[in-house]
Amino acid sequence: MSSEKEVKLYFVRHGETLFNVEKRLQGFCDSPLTDKGIEQAKSVGMGLSDIEFKAVYASESQRVVDTARYAIGHQNIPIITDPRLKEMNFGVLESLLQSEILAQYGNILETLFSISDLNLSAPEGESYLQLFSRTNTAINEIVHKHKHDGGNVLVFSHGVTIGNYLMQLAKMSSYIHHDNCSVSVISYLNGEFYVDRIADTSFRDNTK
Fold it and tell me: Is residue 2 very low, low, confident or very high in pLDDT (cuts 50, 70, 90)?
């Protein structure tokens, strides 16, 4: 008989940032949360406040750490940062405006975000397979740490990182966009992962 208990992972994308508004490609580079992004983080925190979380993990990017802090509020849960939860590395395209990328590199974004091939990457960036590898390693370590006690775990990360992880984990045929502060939930038990919800904005939007 297994001594494992169910672990439920709640993935939250960071709130809206300055680069999101400016339509700059933001992976490893960073920009601050906007006022709207701060409100989104507080709202999703309220939406999740009835759930007891055993631990909180976050990408080490400041926009994600700040989102986690606003979401957790006064709850006394330490935030454990992990660089493997960071956004996809977009290489030479980092921090460029979408219009600049179009002018310099043509339709490279259209090709990259079609995700027709998991080996696709921006020049000097990382591929979807490489991104999944590091995300998957981090998540497996989190699950291993919590599977004997079970419970709920919060994971703050990034849109492409979360979307790509779920797509490859569940072997989905297409990538699902994750809005700022949307929530995806997966359950783990006895070596099996189950996807409960994907890119759900109700936790963020149904709070007063």
Answer: low
Burial 58-74 (b: 16+ CB within 10 A, else e): bbebebbbbbbbbbbee
Residues 37-94 pLDDT 10s? 999 999 999 999 999 999 999 999 999 999 999 999 989 899 999 999 999 999 999 9
Query: What pTM did the predictor assign?
Result: 0.97
**Apex CA 43: angle with CA 178 and CA 78, to 5°?**
90
Parse the chain into domains and list their residue ranges: 7-205
Looking at residue 52, its amino acid is: E
Contact between 164 and 121 under an 8 Å Cβ cutoff? The reply is no
CA–CA distances in Å: residue 154 to residues 92, 105, 120, 199: 31, 37, 29, 14
Q: Which residues are catalytic?
A: 14, 87
Q: What is the total residue count of the chain?
A: 208
CATH 3.40.50.1240 for domain 7-205, yes or no, is yes
